[in-house]
Amino acid sequence: MSRADRRRQAKASGRGAGTLDGLRKALETASVPGTPKPVLDRTRAILLTYFDTSVMQGKSYTQIVKELAEGLPATGIAAVELQQGGTPPGLACAAGCAFCCILTGDDGGTITEHEAKALYTALAPLAGQSDGRSWHPKACPSLDPETRACRAYERRPMICRSYVSVSAQACEKVSMEQDADGPGVLAAQTTYLVAHSLARVALKGIAKVNTFGMSEIAQAAVEGDSEAEALKRARHNPRSLDDERKRNTEGYLSALGH
Ligand code: SF4
Ligand code: SF4
């Protein structure tokens, strides 16, 4: 039997890539190299629960593909994990403390399309106003330069939600590109990156799963770009998600003493 015949037969039996059954199978078998097995198994199980719940709710194949591609489940799963984990003891984080919003890296962090659109929607109405860069040249444009509060707080991405520290002084040092112990990301960020990577592997050949640079999308929004222009401007190279996940996994394993 030719490959085309096999594809037709699989589609007719409901197992093709373009069917709900086919998509579930792709999520069940997707592999994310370098991810510790317990993390991969747990994240996959939660992603499959999202999938099954979506099907029970009557969401269409197209809707589920769109949500997976835009990173809605990755963000939702990590948000629940953050909430269930509660606030770790001893954190120095407080309103107006914003050294962590000085973005010393390349682009402020990897975010999904769902998060990029949410950040854009929160900031676009503020176009033309003074932003965080009036306080510090490398500050996130979402920051209020006077109060140092995030002007997109309810719509801030997972990297902002999961980054915490036991020492504001250490964060200040990091903002000056000095090494310091204290800041780090919670495990929910690992779950988020692995869930989005699983979605990307499962959707290969079906839909593009992009990631975006947080500071670039914020900058584009406050500079008055349209949403399409902002997304184009901030879109990452496809390798960025893998690179970010590998960096995060190394940190996760080193925190466990491996
Ligand atoms: S991560 Fe650091 S800079 Fe950010 S709120 Fe917490 S202590 Fe302050
Ligand atoms: S989005 Fe908000 S919390 Fe995140 S870096 Fe920017 S100002 Fe800080």
Write up this protein:
The protein is mainly α. It has one domain. Helices cover 53% and strands 5% of the residues. The protein is built from twelve helices and four strands; from the N terminus they run H-H-H-H-H-E-H-H-E-H-E-H-E-H-H-H. Strands 1-4 form a two-stranded antiparallel ribbon. Residues 8-15 have low confidence and may be disordered. It binds iron/sulfur cluster (2 copies). One iron/sulfur cluster (SF4) binds at residues 92-93, 97, 99-100, 163-165, 168, 171, 183.
Short overview:
The protein has 258 residues and is mainly α. It has helices spanning 3-12, 20-29, 37-56, 61-70, 72-85, 113-123, 158-162, 168-175, 188-202, 214-222, 227-234, 239-255, and strands at residues 110-112, 163-165, 183-185, 211-213.
- Give the ligands present: iron/sulfur cluster
Helix content range of the residues, please?
A: 40-55%
How many beta-strand elements? Answer: 4
Shape: globular
Runs with pLDDT <50, length 5+? 8-15
| Order of H and E elements | HHHHHEHHEHEHEHHH
Oligomer: single chain
* Alpha-carbon distance between the two ends: 48 Å
pLDDT averaged residue by residue:
91
Strand order of the largest sheet: 1-4
Q: Gyration radius, to the nearest Å?
A: 20 Å
Strand coverage percent: under 5%
- Domain count: the total is 1
Q: Count the helices. How many?
A: 12
Content-based structural category: mainly alpha
Largest sheet: 2 strands, antiparallel
